[in-house]
Amino acid sequence: MAKKLCAACGREFAPRPQIRNQSFCSAPECQRERHRRWQKDKRLHDAKYRKIDAEYNRAWTAANLGYWAQYREDHPDYADRNRQVQRQRNAKIRKLKSGIAPPGNPEFILPSGRYQLIRINAEGVANGNAWIVEITAIACSPP
Ligand SMILES: [Zn+2]
After folding, report:
1. Ligand 1: centre distance to CA 77 (Å)
2. For the segment 69-108, what is each residue's pLDDT rounded down to a tens digit?
3. Residue 34 alpha carbon to ligand 1 centre in Å
4. Distance from the CA of 139 to the center of ligand 1, in angstroms?
5. Is 120 a domain residue?
6. Which tens digits make up the pLDDT trace of 34-43?
């Protein structure tokens, strides 16, 4: 059996013949990584799994009240990083809500108003009828 490189640690391993398309070695941390990636993909693409997973997590949190508060207290770096990432997420949402920013120029905000919409074909040529559309920015506060 030809040797392969592990998708997690990058080390060479001999795939087991019982496992089709094995791409992770059997080291426990690589198996955890394999499961983590599988779960991430499943949460992203499987609505039923996402719902069941969320219910399980809610039940677990209810049965283990205070676990996360204690975890944050024991791991201040983790809590600080989470706060920082959440602040960035909030800023991004505030910016999105304040208007429509075209890709490539996130600083330009399209103000509310009436616009003429013209269909452009694959060659970039405008053709057909034009529509008058009203675009309303759903924000209340500037970024
Ligand atoms: Zn590995």
Report:
1. 27
2. 999 999 999 999 999 999 999 988 887 776 665 566 666 6
3. 9
4. 48
5. no
6. 999 999 999 9
31: Cβ contacts below 8 Å, ≥ 6 apart: 24
Residue 8: domain span = 1-64
Cα→Cα distances 84→56, 75, 129, 143, Å: 27, 15, 47, 18
Instruction: Answer yes or no: is 36 within a domain.
Output: yes
Instruction: Name the residue with tokens 């398309």.
Output: 21
In a domain, 60, yes or no: yes
Ion ligand 1 neighbours, Cβ < 5 Å: 6, 8-9, 25, 27, 30
Percent of the chain with pLDDT over 70: 87
Count of the separate structural domains present in the chain = 1
Kindly state the average pLDDT of the residues 41-50: 95
